[in-house]
Design a protein that fits this description.
Strand content: 15-25%
Low-confidence stretches: none
CATH class of the largest domain: Alpha Beta
Mean pLDDT: 93
CATH topology of the largest domain: Rossmann fold
Number of strands: 18
Helix content: 25-40%
CATH superfamily of the largest domain: Thiamin diphosphate (ThDP)-binding fold, Pyr/PP domains
Length: 546
């Protein structure tokens, strides 16, 4: 068969269901092969969005997502999405086209060294130089992408290779069982936890796997040890649980950090140092690292002991052996109460533009428990991370690794494709939303039911807050916006905002939009003037009391 057809059959053999991207002339043979396959090609308006969508497939399923671009500018447009997947530990394969490598007649037109460009951003990158090499190259790339720690891989597929004939056949996918930790490691973990006075669990991004939740639930039910989460650990465990203390919204000096300071042992469950973490090195606590792979040691993460292997098995084995002790959790619950008081403050405000505290409370009250909230990156992310409890796994999709603006729309679209029966709400700032606004057309074309809340403050709000906190002049961070209702309508979506002048009107429109067909954009002015009071100097005064 033709090499391009073989390549697609290899993707099918690896259970690939979707390819997202912007094809070019160098990938037309591959595109034709996709047309005849079981794989759905979803054309996006920007390569960056394609990788955000593919990475979300990887994030939500554990299986590789695939994105496609042409050579040159198409490949360079992939870079931010590739870094997003790599730092966020999301398995993704990006495929780029290339001019003929055996006999090109176009000189250096559009030619850059894409493999070399991708090398520092991926786990594996390679040019396919022979049709017969395709089965092993695709299989190896997918396997590397999905192995712990998951991430991005890249294959360059030149157009002359795509046109070759080959007798090779796809390699059937083989699931690999993860290794389990040794018995001595489990025994040491149990002994260390039982000997502690005030242990606490910190759930990180690496614990966000579906099978982990069942065993974590058993462990918490048996021990009653309280837990906190990082931002990307939100939802691994039900945050309505009485043992949930809070989420680390900042990297230091927040209520959750006070709880960690009061622990003598912190169980680091799936901690990933690429996620902006709580400060962990300033106290006398001991740290136990439980993860699929050994800890990456740096200046802020130096665990005292490591349990390396399948996390679900580690939790199961520890639960079987551990005995509940007379641990002291009182200080943690004092912190939890103070955090709850902080969250409740201004949550009932009816001021407009809306206070972020009330915005988050409105979201949680109206969005069903199993619905998915996709966040772009901005100041609102800190408010949501701290104030918005997640009840189900992967119902709060945010990026706290690369933390790039512009990802929210693509992530939300992909989440809806994979979960057609769930409500999906996207929250984006006016800065991040306009970075990838072209793919509104993609959402409308795919007939997705999405609600997008565009939080408007006419500037890069988080940076403005930090600029203000540093006593600098307001400079270089403000902009103006289009008419979001007309913008939505021009794409075939539904725009709302001109008639929203109260919190009650926003809540009414939000509820109506999430229960309606089509893409709905709600423009919502927000008042960030209290950022410093709740995340800066005002917060410092509150936590000093603890």
């Amino acid at each position: 068969m033709k090499a391009a057809e073989l390549f697609v059959k290899c993707l099918e053999a690896c259970d690939v269901k979707y390819v997202f991207g912007v094809p070019g002339e160098e990938s037309l043979d591959l595109l034709e092969a996709l047309r005849k396959s079981s794989i759905e090609m979803i054309t996006t308006r920007d390569e960056q969005t394609a990788v955000f969508m593919a990475a979300t497939v990887g994030r939500l399923t554990g299986r590789v997502g695939v994105a496609l671009s042409t050579l040159g500018p198409g490949a360079t447009n992939l870079v931010t999405g590739v870094a997003y997947a790599q730092l966020g530990a999301m398995p993704v394969l990006v495929i780029t086209g290339q001019k003929p490598i055996k006999n090109s007649k176009q000189g250096k037109f559009q030619i850059i060294d894409v493999v070399r460009m991708m090398k520092p951003l991926t786990k594996f990158t390679e040019t396919i130089i022979s049709a017969n090499r395709i089965p092993s190259a695709v299989y190896h790339a997918v396997r590397v992408a999905e192995q712990e720690r998951p991430g991005a891989v890249h294959l360059e597929f030149p157009e002359d290779i795509a046109q070759e004939d080959s007798q090779a056949r796809p390699i059937s996918w083989q699931k690999v069982r993860r290794p389990v930790p040794d018995e001595k490691g489990i025994e040491t973990f149990v002994e260390t936890v039982e000997a502690a006075k005030s242990p606490i669990i910190l759930i990180g991004a690496g614990a966000n796997r579906k099978l982990i939740r069942k065993q974590l639930r058993r462990f918490i039910d048996k021990t009653k040890i309280p837990f906190v989460t990082t931002q990307m650990g939100k939802g691994v465990e039900d945050e309505s649980d009485p043992n949930y203390i809070g989420t680390a919204a900042l990297s230091e000096n927040d209520f959750v950090h006070k709880a960690l300071e009061k622990a003598d042992l912190i169980v680091m469950l799936g901690h990933d140092i690429t996620e902006k973490p709580p400060v962990l090195s300033e106290g006398s606590q001991k740290f136990i690292h439980i993860n699929f792979s050994p800890a990456e040691i740096d200046s802020i993460y130096t665990p005292d002991f490591e349990v390396v292997g399948d996390i679900s098995y580690s939790l199961w084995a520890c639960t079987e052996q551990i005995k509940k002790q007379d641990w002291d959790f009182s200080n943690f619950f004092v912190v939890k109460q103070k955090l709850a008081e902080n969250i409740d403050s201004k949550s009932d405000s009816t001021a407009f533009p809306i206070k972020p505290q009330r915005f988050v409370k409105s979201l949680r009250a109206i969005i069903p428990k199993d619905s998915i909230l996709s966040l772009d990156n901005g100041m609102y992310k800190l408010w949501v991370a701290r104030n918005y409890p997640a009840y189900e796994q992967n119902t709060v999709l945010l990026d706290n690794a690369l933390a790039t603006m512009g990802a929210g729309l693509g992530v939300g679209m992909s989440a809806k494709i994979l979960n057609p029966d769930k409500k999906v709400v996207i929250v984006a700032g006016d800065g991040g939303f306009l970075m990838n606004v072209a793919d509104l057309e993609t959402a409308v074309r795919l007939k997705l039911d999405l609600t997008i809340v565009v939080v408007v403050d006419e500037g890069y709000g988080m940076i403005k807050w930090k600029q203000q906190a540093m006593k600098m002049a307001d400079y270089g961070l403000s902009f103006s916006n289009p008419d979001f209702e007309k913008l939505a309508e021009s794409f075939g979506a539904f725009g709302h905002g001109k008639n929203i002048r109260t919190v009650a009107e926003f809540e009414k429109q939000l509820e109506k939009s999430i229960n309606s067909k089509g893409v709905h954009i709600i423009e919502l002015p927000v008042d960030y003037t209290e950022n410093e009071a709740y995340f800066g100097s005002g917060l410092l005064r509150q936590i000093k009391e603890l």
